[in-house]
Design a protein that fits this description.
By secondary structure, the protein is of the alpha/beta class. It has helices at residues 10-17, 28-31, 38-52, 73-82, 94-99, 108-118, 135-138, 143-150, 166-175, 207-219, 240-256, 264-275, 279-304, and strands spanning 6-8, 22-25, 56-63, 66-69, 87-89, 104-106, 122-124, 154-157, 180-183, 202-204, 226-229. It has one domain (7-304): Indigoidine synthase fold (3-Layer(aba) Sandwich), CATH 3.40.1790. Strands 1, 2, 3, 4, 5, 6, 7, 8, 9, 10 and 11 form an 11-stranded mixed sheet that branches. Strand 3 (56-63) and strand 4 form a beta hairpin. Helix 3 runs parallel beside helix 13 (279-304) and helix 10 packs across helix 13. The longest helix has 26 residues, at 279-304. Bound molecules: pseudouridine-5'-monophosphate and manganese (II) ion. The site of pseudouridine-5'-monophosphate (PSU) has 19 residues, from helix 2, helix 8 and helix 12. Residues 26, 28-29, 32-33, 90, 107-108, 126-127, 129, 142-144, 161, 191, 262, 265, 269 line the site of pseudouridine-5'-monophosphate (PSU).
């Protein structure tokens, strides 16, 4: 049946209508998360990784005001080239971009919304947004967390980046009833590093068990998402102490320049990359690929449950 709200690519439509596994991918990571051309290469490599592991990739964005799942190569390239000129779209921005027939790069929150409308339950990305450091003053809490509290999509990520207050982010997710599962780890990874000093709710050792947990949650009508934290492969992980220093320097510059709101996360991501001389970019790409692989495995297992 045709999806009236989301325009699906042929490949995605075919997979969904025949009950085959599909993995959603976001587009803000392309436009705002990495520089060109690495962002374009990453986006294509991630799609390949999903295919190689038995699922169909559905990169999500808004194009000319239309919600889309499954983009053409040249559309991905255009998002990658335009970068920050594309509007970063979270939940609040969707109606504006749709009504004005504009392009929008979707964050974790808006990708979850569109994935759910399309009937896709599994979504791979790099890192989720969360409670920012200093949120007790700034109130800067990503809409990603509210979305995880209400939208039925599992997000496979490499944990939360320590530009955030990881402890407060975990508290928020607990309040919202969002399970935070560690894939083969009991420690929540902190994006660039495998350690953070914080524990996940449960350590889960296989894609099959993760799929069973998703089925159990949604079969019971327990609304909302699930965070599946997948640590960056050892060979690409960065040094925890070194990253803390880099992040503190980036935060100091952000405060000094009075950068706020939706510009904070892109600014911090760019600054961290600059301060690590690009080393963080390679890590970022590798962890996304690693998440895409696990997401495809979970999607395959979920279809069998
Ligand atoms: N964290 C990353 N890379 C990213 C993002 C977060 O390590 O690209 C992007 C994601 O799209 C995420 C968004 O949903 O930033 C969160 O932005 P905000 O904090 O403004 O909600
Ligand atoms: Mn914010």
């Amino acid at each position: 049946m045709k999806n009236l709200k989301v325009q699906l690519s042929q490949e995605v439509e075919k997979a969904l209508s025949s009950g085959q596994p599909v993995v959603a991918l976001e587009s803000t990571i392309i436009s705002h998360g990495m520089p060109y051309p690495q962002n374009f290469e990453m986006a294509l490599a991630v799609e390949d990784q999903v295919r190689k592991n038995g699922a169909t990739p559905a990169t999500i964005a808004i194009i000319d005001g239309v919600l889309r799942a499954g983009l053409l190569r040249q559309e991905i390239e255009s998002f990658a080239k335009k970068g920050m000129q594309i509007t970063k779209v979270s939940r609040r921005d969707i109606p504006v971009i749709v009504a004005q027939k504009k392009d929008g790069a979707t964050t974790v929150a808006s990708t979850m919304i569109i994935a759910e409308l399309a009937g896709i339950s599994i979504f791979a990305t790099g890192g989720i947004g969360g409670v920012h450091r200093g949120a007790e003053e700034s109130m800067d809490i990503s809409a990603d967390l509210e979305e995880l509290g209400q939208t039925n999509v599992a997000v496979i990520c490499a944990g939360a980046k320590s530009i955030l207050d990881i402890g407060l982010t975990l508290e928020y997710l607990e309040t919202k009833g969002v399970p935070v599962l560690g894939y083969q780890t009991s420690e929540l990874p902190a994006f660039y590093t495998r350690e953070s000093g914080f524990k996940v709710d449960s350590k889960v050792d296989s894609a099959k068990e993760l799929a069973q947990i998703l089925r159990a949650k949604w079969d019971l009508g327990l609304k909302g998402g699930v965070v599946i934290a997948n640590p960056v492969p050892k060979e690409y992980s960065l040094d925890f102490k070194e990253m803390e220093k880099v992040i503190n320097d980036a935060l100091a510059e952000m405060n000094q320049k009075a950068i706020k709101g939706k510009d904070s996360t892109p600014f911090l991501l760019g600054k961290v990359k600059e301060l690590t001389a690009g080393k963080s970019l390679e890590t970022n790409i590798q962890l996304v690929l690693n998440n895409a692989k696990l997401a495809a495995e979970i999607a395959v297992a979920y279809c069998r449950e």
